[in-house]
Design goal:
The structure is a single chain. The protein has helices at 2-11, 16-32, 34-44, 126-134, 159-175, 200-210, 229-240, 277-294, 309-318, 327-332, 335-346, and strands at residues 53-55, 58-60, 64-66, 87-93, 106-109, 114-117, 143-148, 181-185, 219-223, 245-250, 273-274, 299-303, 322-325. The protein is of the alpha/beta class. It binds flavin mononucleotide. Residues 53-341 form the Dihydroorotate dehydrogenase catalytic domain. It holds the Pfam family DHO_dh. One of its GO terms (cellular component) is cytoplasm.
Length: 350
C-alpha cells in the first residue's frame, strides 16, 4: 500500500532509467548494513512455511527470480533475498562492457502495464562483473544465475565473432567459478544484431561451441516469444540434443506492438521490446506447448507479465518450474514477491 499510494506516484513522475539508477545506487547500501537489511526484511521477507524448491540441484528459498535486466551488474545480491526473491539473473552481461543504446531507452506504458525496453545491454562487461561477484559472500538460500548475451557492438556482429563473444564470457565465468547457473540470452530484441541465434542452424553452432567446455552448472536458453509454435519448436528440437542444456526461460520481451491494450500510449519515436502484460498470454501459451511436447526434458522458467498471485498461478499451471519477473515489481512494488510467496504457500503444490 505504501508503495502504491505514496512511493510509486512520486517515482513515476521521473524518468524510468533515473529511478532504476537510484535503486541500483541505494540497493548496495541497504544490502551492506545488517540493521537496514533486517528493516527491509521486516516488511518484505517471506516468513511462512518452507516453500523452497530444488531445481537442477539448486535450492531456491522461494520459487521467484528477479529476471535479467534489473541487476545488470550484480550489485543488488545482498538485498534481493530480503524482499523474498529466491534468486536473481544478473545481466545480461557481455564479453566487453556496453554503454547501451541512445537515451531515452525505457518508456513506461502505465495503462498497458508495460515498459518499452531499449537498453541495449548496458553493462560493465564480464571481467568487471566477475571481480564484483567474487567479493560477494555466498549464502545457500539464494541462487545467482548469470545471463550472457552477445556484446552489443559491430565487432561482435558477424556470426563467428558472435559465437566467440558468448564463448569468452561463458569460459571466463566457468574458469572463475562465478554464478550458480547460466542463461544464454539469444533473443535480445534491442541489440545491434537482434536475434541471430534464434535461427536453428546458428543456434546449433553456438551450443556446440558452448558445449566444448565441461560445465557442471545448469545452462538455460532465454527464448524469443514472437515465433509461431513450429519455429519455436524447431529451436527446442536443437536445444533438446544438447544434454548439458537443462532448460529454457520463456521468455524475452514482446516485439509486437499490436499486443498493447492502449497503443495510444506509445510515443511517436520508439524502439525496443515490450515487457509486462503484453508478454503474459504469449509466454503462457509457449510454456504450455513446451511442457506438453517435451514433458520434463526442460526445466521451464516462466517469465512475462506476472503482476499478481493469479498471474503467478497461471505461470505454474502452464508448466513453469520457477517464475521470473521484473515489470510486476516495478508497477506493484517490492511487496509483490512476499505476496506471491504467501499465496504460493497456501495454494497446492506446483
Ligand atoms: C528494463 C528491462 C531490461 C531488460 N533487460 C534484459 C536483459 O538484459 N536480458 C534479458 O534476457 N532480458 C531482459 N529483459 C527482459 C526481462 O528479463 C523479461 O524477460 C521480460 O521483461 C518479461 O518479464 P516481465 O514482464 O516480468 O518484465 C529486460 C526487461 C526490462 C523491463
Amino acid at each position: 500500500m505504501f508503495y502504491q499510494k505514496v512511493l510509486k506516484p512520486i517515482l513515476f513522475k521521473f524518468d524510468p532509467e533515473k529511478v532504476h539508477n537510484l535503486i541500483v545506487f541505494l540497493g548496495p547500501f541497504l544490502g551492506k548494513s545488517f540493521v537496514l537489511r533486517k528493516l527491509v526484511a521486516l516488511f518484505y521477507k517471506y516468513k511462512g512455511r518452507d516453500i523452497s524448491k530444488t531445481i537442477d540441484g539448486l535450492t531456491y528459498r522461494t520459487p521467484f527470480i528477479l529476471s535479467a535486466g534489473f541487476d545488470y551488474n550484480g550489485k543488488l545480491l545482498n538485498i534481493l533475498p530480503e524482499i523474498s526473491f529466491g534468486g536473481v539473473e544478473v545481466g545480461s552481461i557481455t564479453a566487453r562492457a556496453c554503454l547501451g543504446n541512445k537515451k531515452p531507452r525505457l518508456t513506461r506504458l502505465p495503462k498497458s502495464q508495460s515498459i518499452i525496453v531499449n537498453k541495449g545491454l548496458c553493462n560493465d562487461g564480464v571481467d568487471e562483473i566477475i571481480k564484483r561477484l567474487k567479493n560477494y559472500k555466498r549464502r545457500n538460500d539464494f541462487v545467482i544465475g548469470i545471463s550472457i548475451a552477445r556484446t552489443n557492438d559491430e565487432k561482435a556482429s558477424a556470426v563467428e565473432e558472435g559465437v566467440l563473444d558468448y564463448f569468452y564470457s561463458f569460459k571466463r565465468l566457468n574458469e572463475e567459478d562465478v554464478g550458480d547457473y547460466y542463461t544464454l540470452n539469444i533473443s535480445c530484441p534491442n541489440s545491434f544484431t537482434g536475434g541471430t541465434f534464434t535461427n536453428p542452424a546458428l543456434l546449433s553452432l553456438l551450443l556446440s561451441k558452448i558445449s566444448s567446455i565441461k560445465c557442471h552448472k545448469p545452462i538455460y536458453i532465454k527464448m524469443p516469444i514472437n515465433l509461431e509454435w513450429p519455429e519455436f519448436d524447431n529451436l527446442l528440437k536443437i536445444i533438446e540434443k544438447f544434454e548439458n542444456i537443462k532448460g529454457v526461460v520463456i521468455g524475452n520481451l514482446n516485439k509486437d506492438y499490436n499486443s498493447l491494450d492502449f497503443k495510444i500510449e506509445v510515443p511517436k519515436k520508439f524502439g525496443g521490446g515490450l515487457s509486462g502484460k503484453p508478454c503474459f498470454e504469449i509466454s503462457n501459451e509457449l510454456i504450455k506447448k513446451t511442457k506438453v511436447t517435451y514433458g520434463n526434458r526442460f526445466t521451464i522458467i516462466g517469465c512475462g507479465g506476472v503482476f499478481s498471485s493469479k498471474d503467478m498461478i497461471s505461470k505454474f499451471e502452464a508448466g513453469s518450474d520457477l517464475v521470473a519477473l521484473i515489470t510486476g515489481m516495478i508497477y506493484n512494488g517490492p511487496g509483490l514477491i512476499k505476496e506471491l510467496s504467501n499465496h504460493y504457500a497456501t495454494s497446492h503444490e506446483y
